Every structure is written in C-alpha cells, then in structure tokens.
C-alpha cells in the first residue's frame, strides 16, 4: 500500500486511463474485421472508439487540475 496522499487530479487521471483503454480495446475490436475479411461492425461500434479521445481528455484534465492546485504561486497565496 502507498502512504502518499492522493492528489487533486489523481482520480481523474485514473478514470481517464480506464476510459482510454476501453476505447483502445474497442478500436482493436472494430478494426479486426477489416483485416479478417469479415463484415464490419455497425456504426455504433465506431462511436465507442471515441472513448479513447474522451479518456485522454479526462486524464489531461486531471493533470491540469493537479498542476493548478500544486503550483507554487497558488501555495504562496494560501
């Protein structure tokens, strides 16, 4: 177990990573029929692939939040 306290954006980064990997897995599954020569998936499957970008944005928001809260300028004001 880790004894370090959780930062402000750590949970956002974790959730963003999970959403990103779900989108990456969906992308691999969606692209597979193109290589296997089978019928492609319905368009909704391509929509699930967009979770990759959404996860990246969520994780990026977590990094920005952590940097914002831990910035030296903000620490001096408090």
From TrEMBL:
User: Membrane-spanning regions, if any?
Assistant: 12-32, 44-64
- What keywords were assigned to this record? Membrane, Transmembrane, Transmembrane helix
Q: What is this protein called?
A: Integral membrane protein
């Amino acid at each position: 177990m880790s004894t370090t306290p959780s930062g402000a954006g750590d949970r956002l980064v974790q959730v963003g990573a999970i959403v990103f990997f779900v989108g990456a897995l969906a992308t691999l599954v969606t692209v597979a029929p193109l290589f296997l020569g089978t019928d492609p998936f319905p368009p909704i499957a391509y929509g699930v692939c967009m979770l990759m970008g959404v996860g990246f944005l969520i994780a990026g928001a977590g990094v920005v939040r952590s940097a914002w809260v831990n910035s030296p300028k903000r620490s001096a004001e408090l």
